[in-house]
Design brief:
CATH topology of chain A: Helix Hairpins
Helix content of chain A: 55-70%
Structural class of chain B: mainly alpha
Number of domains of chain A: 1
Order of helices and strands of chain B: HHHHEHHHHE
Order of helices and strands of chain A: HHH
Structural class of chain A: mainly alpha
Number of strands of chain A: 0
Oligomer: heterodimer
CATH class of chain A: Mainly Alpha
Strand content of chain A: under 5%
Number of helices of chain B: 8
Distance between the termini of chain B: 46 Å
Largest sheet of chain A: none
Radius of gyration of chain A: 19 Å
Number of strands of chain B: 2
Largest sheet of chain B: 2 strands, antiparallel
Radius of gyration of chain B: 23 Å
Distance between the termini of chain A: 51 Å
Chain lengths: ~110, ~250
């Protein structure tokens, strides 16, 4: 079920990337796509009745059923890199706004 | 017209992905064969050595002593990957400061801050900084770790920026901290290469699973990552809250 939700989010993000011409909206669409992808990857590692893969005083043995830790570690990487790319693209958006006074790709005109 | 074509394209793509994943009797959601797959080796900590099971506060001197298994993967088994990841974050922060190079004056918001906001922010900022430090020092025991801890530090800096009109963090010291943390991370890797056998090997004794001082180089690496991420996020925030000097 979560996987279907992740797929739907990925498709919404793709739709936004294809149709929108506003830079801020494109960045938001990219983030929606990324959240959907992360959700999908995490849900691949789900095990029936599994618990979070952390040994504590309550869950103190490796014999318990944990969910798969590997996709979670990969998604941790993906989240951080997503944050970096979002920051960089927002910086570009600010620079573009300072140059052209608009966020819309259609209204920018051609480079002189 | 464009929208209809886009919707059709997206729906067709979704249909192909859905059918290739689920219809041929292959439902990934019920992958309960984890016990036979490679990930079980991460949980019982038997990737490079033979180990039957791990018990909290009892098992000692394993190949990796972290109680949080995701942390074990991120900072030990796949530590080289994490080094690349902080490099990507470093490049992003460098890119932001290069793109916004002319923006030096602090951005003034239209709405002025008031005394309640200032006092409340001063109260919360200290607690948030302590929470961030707690998170990355306990990364091998509890949920969290270097990346969320560093982000919390960045958030507390953002709070100061939003509440105080003339507040500027000293960015030079943040840059020093960032460079120092990255260099020490690489140096730890090189020490592993010489003392033990490969780059970023866990060469310290790993101790008891669940103790605060345990897991060898994992807490050290996560503290370094936390400092690095915190200073990078703070640098990005500082760069975003500035504007071009009107000339």
């Amino acid at each position: 079920m979560i996987q279907i939700a992740g797929l739907i989010l990925i498709l919404i993000g793709l739709y936004g990337l294809i149709t929108k011409r506003n830079i801020i909206k494109m960045i938001i669409a990219l983030n929606v796509l990324e959240i959907g992808l992360n959700l999908f990857i995490v849900s691949v590692g789900y095990v029936q009745d599994g618990i979070a893969p952390i040994l504590t005083e309550v869950n103190n043995s490796s014999g318990l059923i944990f969910v798969d830790p590997l996709p979670q570690a990969l998604v941790l990487t993906a989240i951080v890199i997503g944050m970096g790319t979002t920051a960089l693209s927002l910086a570009f958006a600010r620079k573009i706004y300072a140059t052209h006074q608009t966020f819309d790709l259609n209204e920018m005109g051609v480079e002189e | 017209m464009k929208r209809i074509v886009s919707i059709l394209l997206v729906v067709v793509l979704g249909y192909f992905v859905y059918t290739s994943l689920y219809v041929d009797g292959f439902d990934m959601a019920v992958s309960d064969n984890r016990q036979t797959s490679i990930s079980d080796a991460y949980i019982t900590k038997s990737v490079t050595s033979e180990n039957e099971s791990v018990t909290y506060m009892e098992s000692t001197d394993l190949e990796n002593g972290s109680a949080n298994i995701v942390t074990a993967i991120v900072t030990d088994y796949r530590s080289f990957d994490t080094l690349g990841e902080v490099t990507v974050l470093f490049l992003a922060s460098i890119g932001v400061s290069m793109v916004l190079a002319g923006f030096t004056k602090k951005y003034q918001f239209k709405m002025k801050t008031n005394r309640i906001l200032k006092t409340g922010a001063r109260l919360v900022v200290g607690l948030a900084l302590v929470l961030g430090v707690y998170m990355f020092t306990h990364g091998h025991l509890s949920p969290g770790g270097g990346f969320p801890g560093g982000s919390i530090i960045g958030a507390s800096i953002l709070m100061m920026y939003l509440s105080e009109e003339n507040f500027r963090a000293r960015m030079a010291s943040f840059k020093w901290m960032e460079s120092l943390a990255g260099t020490v991370y690489v140096l730890i890797g090189i020490i592993g290469l010489f003392v033990a056998t490969y780059f970023l090997e866990n060469f310290l004794p790993t101790g008891t699973v669940g103790a605060l001082v345990s897991a060898g180089i994992i807490p050290i690496v996560y503290i370094l990552i936390g400092l690095k991420v915190g200073s990078e996020v703070s640098g990005i925030i500082d760069q975003f809250l500035t504007e071009e000097v009107a000339s």
